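RECORD TYPE: inverse folding
INPUT: structure tokens
STRUCTURE:
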């Protein structure tokens, strides 16, 4: 008998969070690059890089969950088709 797996949940939070963090990091980067280099722009640059990383990770979680759910649905159809014969 085929092993039953729980249905994969889509990590819907990853899309808005990821986009917000990426847009925020890009905006901070533009702000930091617009002026002279001083302590404030260095701090903004230090903040922008982890924001960008967190945004990419969030979007990755969303995309991975969509792929995982698609694979699950495909496997369920394959198992159902093989048990019909």
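DESIGNED SEQUENCE:
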């Amino acid at each position: 008998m085929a092993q039953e797996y729980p249905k994969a949940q889509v990590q819907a939070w990853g899309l808005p969070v990821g986009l917000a963090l990426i847009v925020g990091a890009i905006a901070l980067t533009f702000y930091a690059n617009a002026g002279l280099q001083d302590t404030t722009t260095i701090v903004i640059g230090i903040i922008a890089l982890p924001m960008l990383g967190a945004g990419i990770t969030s979007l990755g979680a969303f995309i991975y969950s969509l792929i995982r759910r698609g694979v699950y649905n495909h496997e369920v159809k394959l198992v159902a088709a093989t048990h019909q014969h």
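NOTES: The first helix runs from residue 14 to 34.
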